[in-house]
Every structure is written in structure tokens, then in C-alpha cells.
Design goal:
With 190 residues, this protein is an alpha+beta fold. The protein has three domains: 39 residues, Zinc/RING finger domain, C3HC4 (zinc finger) (Herpes Virus-1); 32 residues, no CATH class; 70 residues, no CATH class. The protein contains seven helices and ten strands. This is TRAF-type domain-containing protein.
Length: 190
């Protein structure tokens, strides 16, 4: 009888060579190894099904980014690493706190962060960290009242008496400064 329980009974007088050939090359129940994932003890008759439907190393197309990724990285659960951590199209939430309701593809997260009103930015003069939306109203303690607005030429002291603070403008997402970059300042009215 076949060692692999395929149901074949060898007729008496079957040579060892024929038995070996059946067990190693012909038996549909013989154990084989998947070349992709190296799993052993797969029955030969089940190998094609394993490779096309179950093999964790089988390359499949991600339905979000269309890259070829191993099945084990696409499956949800503990091993769904691609969809949870690698896919550039996975949906993520803004990391700047609960106030921001933005969510979108991971690959656009940096673009959002450069404009998010809830991201922290640093005052270029006093280095205080503020939310981006707070920067417009920030009254920097390092601005000298004798300095003048480069547009209307009034001093900061005169502008502040009128309730118009200086605008400490910050870096734009394209890397340029919204002021003349010689650290010249203008008031919010200008």
C-alpha cells in the first residue's frame, strides 16, 4: 500500500523501483514543497490550489495602489501590513490633533500637514510654537516698536495703538517666505 494514503494498493510482485517511482513522482497525495512560500507537507494534488488561492507569498495586486504585493501583506488582520502601514493610498487621519478632521491618502499627508491650521509652527523671531492659525494674531515680544511697516512706513508702536499688529508671516508650502525675506515686516492691514 502507498505510504501517502492515496488508496493505491501495490499488486504483489511490484518492484521497489516502481513503488519508489509512484511515491516520489506519481502519487497525487505525496508531500511537496511550495517554491514560493517554502511550506512543506502540501499534497501534490492540492499544490495548484495552494499556489493560486492560499499561498501567503503569492503576488496579488493591491486594489488601492495597484502594486504587486504578497498575499500575506494584503490580508486584513495581524499580517495585513501593506494595507495598514505600506500602501501609499491607505487612508490616514491628520496627526495634528483631534481638532483637524482631515483624512485622505497617506501620500498626500505631507501636503496637508504643510497647510493644516492645527499644525504647530515656530515664530521665526521668538521661536514660540503656535498652531498655524494662531500665528496671524501672534504678538511677538521681540519686535521693536521703533521698526516700521515696509508698506505703510508707520512704526509698530503707532500701528499697535490703532489695534493693527505686525504680521509675522511664515514659510509657505512651496518653500518661499510670505515676506520680503530680508526679515522685513509689514502690518496686517498691508
Amino acid at each position: 500500500e502507498c505510504n501517502w494514503n492515496c488508496g493505491l494498493s501495490f499488486p504483489s510482485g511490484t518492484s521497489k523501483k516502481d513503488k519508489h517511482k509512484h511515491r516520489s513522482e506519481e502519487c497525487p497525495a505525496r508531500p511537496v514543497r511550495c517554491e514560493k512560500c517554502q511550506t512543506t507537507d502540501i499534497k501534490f494534488k492540492d499544490l495548484e490550489l495552494h499556489e493560486t488561492e492560499m499561498c501567503p507569498a503569492q503576488l496579488l495586486e493591491c486594489d488601492q495602489c495597484h502594486l504587486q504585493v504578497e498575499r500575506k501583506k494584503l490580508e486584513l488582520g495581524a499580517q495585513g501590513e501593506h494595507k495598514l502601514n505600506e500602501c501609499e493610498q491607505r487612508i490616514v487621519r491628520c496627526q495634528n490633533g483631534d481638532e483637524c478632521t482631515w483624512s485622505g491618502p497617506w501620500q498626500t499627508c505631507n501636503m496637508h500637514d504643510e497647510k493644516c491650521p492645527f499644525a504647530y509652527v515656530e515664530c521665526p523671531e521668538c521661536l514660540e510654537r503656535l498652531h498655524r492659525w494662531e500665528m496671524r494674531e501672534h504678538l511677538c515680544p521681540l519686535i521693536d516698536g521703533a521698526d516700521v511697516c515696509i508698506v505703510c512706513t508707520e512704526t509698530w508702536a503707532e500701528r499697535l495703538q490703532k489695534g493693527v499688529p505686525p504680521a509675522l508671516l511664515i514659510m509657505e508650502s512651496n518653500g518661499t517666505c510670505r515676506r520680503a525675506c530680508g526679515h522685513l515686516r509689514m502690518c496686517l492691514d498691508c
